Write a sequence for this structure.
């Protein structure tokens, strides 16, 4: 590992960060820049598997695109290995919260990602991504006494109802 | 992006990390070192806007200073751009939990920060910070059967009551 | 701080990330590579103190080893200082969730770590680790209406029961 390797690591982290941000902000066109053409995604221990950038984006935008779907995916603790000048692997810890106001559900969980990256025309892209969950749980929201949504990116412009 | 740029990025991340830590540890004097004199903060989609370091610190120490206010702000996924030798922008994902034992409330949420940084006398400082929430929710604690606070930085010295 | 220092910081972050991952994945042999022989751990404000790598691993594998113990420890916001070519200190923010299906409990919390690192035979190791909690809370799971575990690393292979 030397300083030049760190520049590559930073570029790899950045494409992963952009992927996670565009997922939660529902910026599907920008998300498409994160993947190789033939990228493969295998979410939830492989239960959801999609081949090709278009299929991945189609799945994510369809299943997570609604304004009532508030998602917060956070990745941590990157362990990235450069395996050649144009390939790398990465392990990440993830945790996520999804507040679905139409389905009256909160889903919370944690997982570990195993990714592969490729450098294409000088830009690192995600070639393979997938995660296996440590745990996941689901909870109806209406059954929680007094639980109240106080801000939403989509319906309150990200502004809180709570007064400081 | 080269290795020298990474040194700047690390310094920018560090001032942001110090800001988040001093917020949760209520170290207001140390927090003051994180901002430019004329820094602007626009929290919660701009609902809470403060101009100048003193106004920012005054707001935060007043609204979050009580020992009954247990906050955990965590930032992730930095996308930092150096826009000149002395200016930079940064996008961060955030999630936070606040346990208010006096108001019997838990507040949880997620957001994205958009920051600007300036290098002043060789030190990076936060010149502008603000976030927009993906979601935020509020929940009364007494209505949760069996919920029990088992540690507090302020009242148990950070030690847990739970026996391993 | 220069680019060579960043290479050291990356190596220090990596050993900490490996420690957190092996904790949640229960990979005790790999975890042992993270510590110096005489490492000291002082968890929960010093309530749980263990001296020596073997004692630390024994405590963690005993208290967190069961397949019914689903833990998610996440560390953030590293403030690492190189104090000599072979020693360093580090402050980290942490948050954790533990879902104990046998004890019908969820434990959630946040803390700050204060670590010391040593470079031994060219490899950075954890020499001292400890954290103090901002808050911690415990909640019985059966009392939460409709709460359902939908994935487990140990019992569902990390695959979710929820259909997208």
């Amino acid at each position: 590992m030397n300083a030049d390797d760190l520049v590559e690591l930073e570029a790899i982290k950045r494409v992963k960060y952009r992927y996670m941000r565009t997922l939660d902000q529902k910026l599907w066109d920008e998300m498409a820049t994160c993947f190789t053409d033939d990228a493969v995604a295998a979410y939830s221990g492989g239960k959801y598997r999609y081949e090709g950038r278009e299929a991945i984006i189609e799945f994510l935008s369809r299943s997570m695109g609604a304004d009532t779907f508030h998602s917060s995916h956070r990745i941590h603790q990157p362990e990235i290995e450069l395996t050649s000048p144009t390939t790398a692997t990465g392990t990440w810890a993830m945790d996520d919260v999804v507040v679905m106001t139409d389905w009256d559900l909160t889903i919370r969980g944690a997982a570990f990602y195993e990714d592969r990256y490729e450098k294409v025309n000088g830009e690192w892209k995600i070639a393979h991504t997938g995660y296996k969950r440590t745990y996941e749980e689901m909870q109806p929201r209406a059954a929680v006494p007094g639980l109240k949504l106080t801000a939403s990116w989509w319906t309150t412009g990200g502004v809180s109802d709570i007064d400081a």
